């Protein structure tokens, strides 16, 4: 069934949406009813697809089989839910890798699932629509800025309600910054300085292009949701509790100052840090903290939604 046929159906449909990111593969299975995306199942597998891409320009061959196994697992789950369609999106790592087309063809031949690689701007657009779809109406009637800190890139989008005013995709992400700057854990002060200089140089690119005044900051993706789970002291991740959780800048700054003193082994002991994220979470906290500081955001709201929700909304051509 194609997207046009899906969008013409009046009854609810079920869609599986896969987001193949630089660090993590995410699966959302959702029921779509009129203008609402109702999540039925979420799953994640940390693959580190973007490992060493900055240095080599290539996705490592051993990662091909990891991606294949993840897609096979996601496809089986989707079939168990009897979905009407499976869609798959590729982001920063697949945009950057010289052999990204080889991986896409490999996955298609083995599974029949075609990964669609989207541009940084399209990623930003889908992220924004996914994020705001989970906000309450009071926030929807105000100016909104969405930040999506991924493994390879960070998307910044601001708008009013469901109308995007401006967007940008910056080449700073948790995996990219970690591999480029952090050789020690805890990181050396010199390493943090060089990382911050690089990050803030990227922020300078949007300094005169965005109007952040009186805007509500919403954060999506694992850095923000992990920090929210940590702030809530959740022993087991709960998207419903994380979604709409508000944190002040002082809280983010306090978490930053704590994590910059921790070793990898110490971070591994923190229950809110998923296995495979222990070495990149500090880079994400640093990006978020410096963004909020530079652009004078005093608080952030966590959203458990993002690209995979936006991709479903796009497929359905839902009119907001």
UniProtKB/TrEMBL annotation:
Gene3D superfamilies: 3.30.420.40, Exopolyphosphatase. Domain 2. Residues 29-314 form the Ppx/GppA phosphatase N-terminal domain. CDD domains: ASKHA_NBD_AaPPX-GppA_MtPPX2-like. It comes from the Bacteria. GO terms for molecular function: pyrophosphatase activity. It holds the Pfam family Ppx-GppA. This is Ppx/GppA phosphatase.
């Amino acid at each position: 069934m194609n997207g046009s046929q899906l969008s013409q159906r009046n009854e609810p449909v079920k869609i599986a949406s896969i987001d193949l990111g630089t660090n993590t593969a995410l699966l959302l299975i959702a029921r779509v009813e009129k203008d609402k995306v109702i999540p039925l199942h979420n799953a994640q597998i940390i693959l580190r697809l973007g490992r060493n891409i900055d240095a080599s320009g290539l996705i490592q061959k051993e990662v091909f089989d990891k991606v294949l196994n993840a897609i096979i697992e996601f496809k089986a789950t989707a079939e168990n839910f009897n979905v009407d369609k499976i869609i798959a999106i590729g982001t920063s790592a697949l945009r950057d890798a010289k052999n990204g087309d080889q991986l896409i063809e490999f996955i298609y031949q083995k599974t029949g699932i075609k990964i669609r690689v989207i541009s940084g701007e399209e990623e930003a657009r889908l992220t924004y629509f996914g994020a705001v779809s989970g906000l309450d109406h009071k926030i929807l009637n105000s100016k909104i800025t969405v930040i999506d800190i991924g493994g390879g890139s960070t998307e910044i989008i601001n708008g009013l309600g469901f109308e995007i005013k401006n967007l940008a995709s910056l080449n700073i992400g948790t995996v990219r910054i970690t591999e480029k700057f952090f050789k020690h854990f805890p990181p050396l002060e010199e390493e943090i300085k060089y990382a911050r200089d690089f990050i803030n140089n990227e922020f300078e690119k949007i300094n005169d292009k965005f109007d952040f005044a009186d805007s509500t900051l919403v954060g999506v993706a694992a850095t923000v949701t992990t920090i929210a789970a940590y702030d809530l002291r959740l022993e087991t991740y709960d998207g419903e509790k994380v979604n709409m959780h508000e944190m002040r800048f002082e809280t983010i700054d306090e978490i930053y100052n704590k994590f910059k003193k921790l070793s990898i082994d110490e971070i591994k002991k923190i229950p809110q840090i998923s296995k495979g994220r222990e070495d990149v979470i500090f880079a994400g906290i640093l990006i978020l903290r410096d963004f909020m500081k530079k652009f004078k955001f005093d608080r952030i709201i966590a959203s458990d939604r993002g690209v995979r929700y936006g991709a479903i909304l796009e497929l359905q051509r839902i009119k907001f």
